[in-house]
Each structure stands twice: as C-alpha cells, then as structure tokens.
Design goal:
The chain contains 17 helices and two strands. It is an all-alpha fold and about 500 residues long. The chain has a single domain, classed as Amino acid/polyamine transporter I (Up-down Bundle), CATH 1.20.1740. A two-stranded antiparallel ribbon has the order 1-2. A hairpin with a 5-residue loop joins strand 1 and strand 2. Helix 9 packs across helix 16. The longest helix has about 35 residues. The two termini are about 45 Å apart.
Length: about 500
C-alpha cells in the first residue's frame, strides 16, 4: 500500500547503535551550534528585505515568525529526544508517516539546505563587496551580483549584476572543505558564535541611543498583508522566518551528542531563545535609528546593520560589524551544505536517491560525490530571492514533523519520551496553523508556484525512480552495519 512503507523506530534506533560517531557534544555545545546555524544572513541581511515589505511593522513580523519557530522547537524536542539519530525531519517522517511523505520531506529539505546555502552565499557576498568598496578594493559591478540581483554602490545607485563571483567562490571553497573533511569543531563554532553575538551586542548598544520614535510612523505602511500577497507584516514574517531557520540543524548532530535525550531539547530551545531575544533587540534598534519605510535607504542596503552604524556616526564600528558578518556567515553556508549532504546521503542509503550519492571518498572518508553535486548547485544558483523558496520547503517539513509527533502520541503512547511537548494538543495544532499561515503569506508568484512545481517534480521522481529502488520495495531489511557518516567535529 502507498502509505504502509515505514522504517520502524526500533530499526532506526538499532541502526544508530551500530554507528561509530563519537558522542562528545554537551548542551552548551549544541546551543552554540544552534546559534551558529541560526544567526546568519537572516539578521545581517534580511532586515532590509523585511523593511521593504512591512516597514517598521517588521517588529511584529519578527514576533510572529519567532512564535511559530518556538512552537516548532517544542515539537522537534520531543521527537529528537525520542529518536536521537541523523536525518532530521526526513528520518522522523520515514518512521511515522511512511516512505512517500518521507521522500517529500527530504525533497523539500533540499529547498531548506541547498537553496538556503545559496541565499546565505549572496548575503555574505553583499557584505564582502560592501567591505571591499569601503576600502577602495571593489570588484567591477557586473561581478558583484547575479543576473537577477542588484548591488547598491557607495553613491547610493543600484546596478544590475551579471555574475556573483564572491558567492560562487565561497560555495566552492566550502564544498572543498567538506570533501576533504575539514570542518569547524565545536570550539571553533563557539568562537564564531561569540563573534556574532559581540557584533550584534555592539550594534544594539550603539543604535539604541539613536532611536527616534518618529521613525516608527507610520508603523504599518503596507498593512498586515493578506495570504498570497507576499507583502505587509505577514509577508515580512514569512521572509523573516528564514532568519530563524537552522535551529533544526541541532537535531542532525544527535549522534554526536552525549546524553541526547536531555541535551538536544536544551540545544534546540536554548539556541532559539537566545536568537529570538537578539533579533527583537536588533530589529527595534535598526528601525528606530534609521527608519524602515518601504523603498527607503535601509530597505535597499545589502548590509543593513553596517549601513545603519555608518549613518549614525559609527563608521569604524560599522566596518567591524560587516567584518564580523564576513567572518561568521561562511560557517552558516557550511552548516547548511553539510546538512544537505547528510540528508541526501541518508536517503541514498535507504535507496531513495542514486547509490552514487552514498559513495565515500577512499582517502577523506566523506560523501564526496553528493558534496560536489550540492556545492556546484549552490555555486551556480546563489540567488537572494530564493530565500523565500527555502522557507516554503522548511515550513512543509516543520508541518509534517508536528503532524508526526501528534500521531505518535496516539499510535505509540507508551514509548519512552525523555522530553514531552507541553500541551501537545494545543502546541501541535498551533505550530501547524502557523506553518500554514506563513507558507501562504510567502506569496503565490514566484514562491508558492515554484514550490508546487518542485513538489510535482518530486512526486514524479519518487514514482519513476525512488519507489522501485527503495530498500523496502521488496521487503529487504535495511542494513544495520551502515557506512558511518563523516564526523563534522573532527
């Protein structure tokens, strides 16, 4: 039957017991990983996007997006503590909702990880190009942005790009690092997180005294917005949601975590809580100090936080904030691409992706084939507009995880739950409703339309390729002695 192919939880857990990844991460390490994955292009770059859609009302947008993510984090904490294995939402869906839904979730996660990596690359390139221009080292305008993006010159004029050279080179560099097995350790992650927090703290401390409440008028220049419009507070919330994406990456480190039943929920909720507080403070300071009306200077900037500081009399600190973004954002690209390769690698071992995707390099012991495929895709398609498309895939995956956790409460009520989502029959439906609201607030054209096309392509791929090649297609057991995934913390 169509929905009866499931990979039982007990088999998933038995597989994890056979894995050789070293459990060395504690609650603090996971929280730092979560903050490192979340604080990235979203707050450093998408502040301008939100300003263009909602004006000062983007303050409400941050609250709405953050609330949906908090509800989802509570849901994730329960299933991640129950099933502390790799694969994230894909694995959870395979266990509860069956192979078809798991395939669609894995397919949607390509939008979360690979497309998000491209969007972060563009955000990083914007800061890097701004930094270079500020020091007289700018590239030719045609090499500062892709053919669908523009770059704001120092004199305030916008120029159409042709090829985003810096984003392209960054994606290839990160790909090479992942292939050779060179990745940031938990200690390096902590250092980068502290740099990000220091930069945001400096921004808040300097921008707060410059807050002028007149900059909040009118508060809602585009209103609250309506579903499918893509503008207003709801449209900005749907875009800002990208700023919170990444906390679920904590669950992908489950097999490297000591006492995962306790530490994963702490990492998920702790990282999201810290990021939400910072986001609200930064948004308030940016709007109050500079104004955020649609079409204004802030809404056009590719490096909005540095732009604000330069315009309120702190150009040197603005350069330092830009430098912090330049230093820290590549780590987000790395985390997103690592997550993508892990999802595809796991799907390949289940037979749902080509077998070559799970080939391991004989020297570096990394899934080099799928890593290069992912890296080349990210390098060739680094378009900032794809951030909203990434949100569509993530919201779909979050919706399915919430549904799966509630189903498990009914189908396996006695299974041990180290962390129980409080008020599950309130939190679960609210999380699902929030995901649906933000999904339709992304706007039909091009975001939802592209997602629908992507989903149709995924369904065709499943029935033409994956379904027949699945390890469960002929009742074959999935091997417990699987090739271990590369250890990100080596």
């Amino acid at each position: 039957m169509l929905f009866q192919r499931r990979k039982p939880l007990d088999l998933i857990l038995a597989t994890a017991e056979k894995r050789s990844l070293k459990r060395q991460l504690g609650a603090f390490d996971l929280t730092m990983l979560g903050i490192g994955a979340v604080i990235g292009t979203g707050i450093f770059v998408l502040t301008a996007v939100a300003a263009n859609k909602a004006g000062p009302g983007m303050m409400y947008s941050f609250v709405i997006a953050g609330a949906v993510c908090v509800l989802t984090a509570l849901i994730y904490s329960e299933i991640a503590a129950m099933v502390p294995v790799s694969g994230s939402a894909y694995t959870y869906s395979y266990a509860v909702l069956g192979e078809l839904i798991a395939w669609m979730v894995g397919w949607a996660l390509i939008l979360e990880y690979a497309v998000a990596a491209g969007a972060v690359s563009v955000g990083w390139a914007g800061y890097a190009n701004g930094f270079l221009y500020a020091h007289g080292l700018g590239l030719p305008p045609i090499l500062t942005a892709g053919p669908f993006d523009t770059f704001l010159m120092p004199d305030g004029t916008s120029v159409r790009g042709g090829f985003n050279l810096i984003a392209f080179l960054l994606a290839l560099l990160v790909t090479w690092l992942l292939v050779v097995g060179t990745s940031k350790s938990a200690k390096v992650t902590t250092v980068l997180v502290l740099i990000k927090i220091a930069a945001l703290t400096a921004f808040v401390a300097l921008a707060f005294p410059a807050v002028n409440h007149a900059n909040f008028v009118p508060m809602l220049p585009n209103g609250w917005g309506t579903p499918l419009s893509g503008v207003g507070v709801l449209g900005a919330a749907a875009s800002i949601f990208f700023a919170y994406v990444g906390f679920d990456a904590v669950s992908t480190a489950a097999e490297e975590t000591k006492n995962p039943n306790r530490n994963i929920p702490i990492g998920l909720i702790g990282s999201l809580g810290v990021c939400t507080v910072f986001y609200l403070l930064v948004a308030y300071a940016a709007v109050g100090a500079m104004g955020a009306q649609p079409g204004g200077a802030l809404s056009q900037s590719k490096e909005p936080l540095a732009f604000v500081l330069r315009n309120i009399g702190w150009p040197r600190v603005g350069d330092l904030v830009a430098g912090a973004a330049i230093l820290a954002l590549p780590s987000v690209v790395l985390m997103m691409m690592f997550g993508q390769t892990r999802i595809l690698f796991t799907m390949s071992r289940d037979g749902l992706m080509p077998a070559r995707f799970s080939k391991v390099h004989p020297k570096y012991h990394t899934p080099h084939v799928v890593t290069w495929i992912t890296g080349i895709f990210v390098a060739l398609f680094p378009v900032s507009a794809l951030a909203d498309i990434s949100n569509a895939g993530t919201l779909f995956a979050f919706f399915m995880v919430a549904a799966g956790v509630m189903i498990l409460r009914k189908t396996e009520p006695t299974r041990p739950r180290p962390f129980r989502t409080p008020l599950i029959w309130v939190v679960g439906p609210l999380a699902m409703a929030g995901c649906v609201l933000l999904f339709f607030s992304l706007g039909w054209n091009p975001t939802i339309m592209f997602f629908c096309i992507w989903a149709v392509i995924g369904l065709i791929g499943y029935f033409l390729f994956a379904r027949q090649r699945s390890h469960l297609a002929h009742g074959e057991p999935i091997e417990l002695h699987e090739e271990p995934l590369p250890d990100i913390h080596k």
